[in-house]
Design brief:
With about 400 residues, the protein is mainly alpha-helical. The protein has a domain of about 100 residues. Helices cover about 70% and strands about 0% of the residues. The chain is built from 21 helices and no strands. Helix 9 runs parallel beside helix 11 and helix 10 runs antiparallel to helix 11. The longest helix is centred in the middle third of the chain and has 21 residues. It starts with 6 loop residues before the first helix and ends with a helix. About 5% of the residues have low confidence. InterPro entries: ARM-like, ARM-type_fold, Importin-beta_N. Keywords: Cytoplasm, Nucleus, Protein transport, Transport. Its main location: cytoplasm. One of its GO terms (biological process) is protein import into nucleus.
């Protein structure tokens, strides 16, 4: 790290965190060290809260590969909690708990590099920190963020690109449900989406879990930006066609049955099925909110787009979905419950428009008999859940 907080504070913090090592020495001796630091360890470093330089000292511990993993995790949890409590509205905090402007700039300058160098169990805490900072500071107080993320995405190291996608996902997440002040969204789309779409094309043919995780992040970035609005840039065919094609390729990508976990409740957690689910969600969101003329008012700004979409692209989605149903019915492919629900929603919307209805009508009897009806039947799994946990059964069916 490039920052150098007060040495005495850093030493105090490290001494406090040494307790983690002592507490877990017996576990480590048997190779069973717990991955979650105890409340005592987090409380120990918390005693330094308010001391000048403690946050930066925590960052040093988090980023140091020489520090115990438990110490790094405890420091990251303290760091996350302190940022969540004190980053917003510093004027209402007591003076000793304010985060100085210089500390804020140092944190913002180094947070992405920390994400690159930390293990996943620590990185998860830092992602929360990044989200808090972005929701408060971007764009006016964080003007260098775009450039930092671009540098990560342009790396030749997949691990660094992955962090770049994490960073972009947190940025788009800020605007997921933000109905006003959306001006930065178009800039985000223009700056990053062509690049991440190309990254996605390069990953779609891979079969490793890392590629699936990266594709999931790419799809989530896209989905965040279309939750409340489909910008003109994304409505344009130069963007819609390559993105839509990538989503359909993900839908059609086979996941070998032998690669799925044996436990029937686990396949949905498979990295490729997580990525698939987000591809389905993107396609469904475009169609159900912006691309179905019958669902829009006559004065909707999406009306022209919807008319074109339902004739020129919705049929491609429908064809892909019907093919997946065919494979599922023949037991040649597994579909997660969430994906089955998304497909059912798409078919339901397709019935409403005469153009898509003309495509789905020849398959309607098959869909009712082999797709809808089996899902309505009381299965052996339903019976087992009803016996074991009636409340959960009711919850799962509502």
């Amino acid at each position: 790290a490039t920052f150098q907080p007060d040495t005495n504070v850093r030493i105090q913090a490290e001494l406090q965190l040494k307790q983690v090592t002592v507490d877990n020495s017996l576990y480590r001796h048997f190779g069973k060290a717990p991955l979650t630091p105890g409340k005592e360890a987090i409380a120990l470093i918390g005693t330094l809260e308010g001391t000048q330089g403690t946050l930066l000292s925590s960052m040093q511990i988090i980023g140091s590969e020489e520090s115990e993993l438990h110490a790094r995790q405890a420091a990251s949890i303290y760091f996350k909690n302190a940022i969540k409590r004190h980053w917003f509205e510093p004027e209402v905090n007591t003076p000793n708990l304010r985060i100085s402007d210089s500390d804020r700039e140092t944190i913002k300058s180094n947070i992405l590099q920390l994400l690159v160098t930390t293990p996943p169990i620590v990185r998860s805490q830092l992602i929360t920190v990044l989200g808090v900072i972005l929701s408060n500071d971007f764009p006016s107080k964080y003007p260098g963020y775009h450039a930092q993320v671009q540098a990560l995405l342009q790396s030749q190291d997949p691990k660094i690109v992955y962090v770049g996608l994490l960073a972009l996902k947190e940025l788009t997440r800020v605007y997921k449900f933000k109905a006003t002040e959306r001006e930065p969204v178009d800039d985000i789309i223009a700056t990053f989406f062509p690049a991440i779409q190309q990254i996605g094309i390069g990953l779609i043919g891979a079969n490793n879990a890392e590629a699936a995780e990266m594709l999931k992040l790419i799809f989530k970035c896209y989905h965040h930006t279309i939750q409340l609005d489909l910008s003109e840039r994304l409505r344009d065919n130069s963007s819609l066609v390559p993105w839509g094609t990538l989503f359909i390729q993900m839908v059609e990508k086979p996941v070998p049955m032998e690669d799925l976990p044996a436990d029937q409740e686990e396949p949905e957690k498979h990295p490729w099925w997580k990525a698939k689910r987000w591809a389905y969600q993107c396609l469904n969101r475009i169609y159900t909110r912006y691309g179905n003329p019958t669902a829009l008012t006559s004065d909707s700004k999406y009306k022209t787009f919807a008319t074109s979409f339902v004739h020129n692209f919705a049929p491609n989605i429908l064809t892909a979905y019907l093919k997946q149903v065919e494979l599922w019915v023949a037991k040649q492919a597994w579909l997660s419950p969430r994906v089955l629900c998304l497909m059912g929603t798409f078919f339901e919307e397709s019935v409403k428009d005469k153009h898509t209805w003309s495509m789905i009508k020849p398959h309607s009897q098959t869909l009712i008999t082999h797709f809808v009806f089996p899902q309505l039947c009381f299965s052996a799994a339903d019976e087992a859940l009803w016996v074991d946990d009636p409340s959960e059964y009711i919850h799962s069916k509502i």
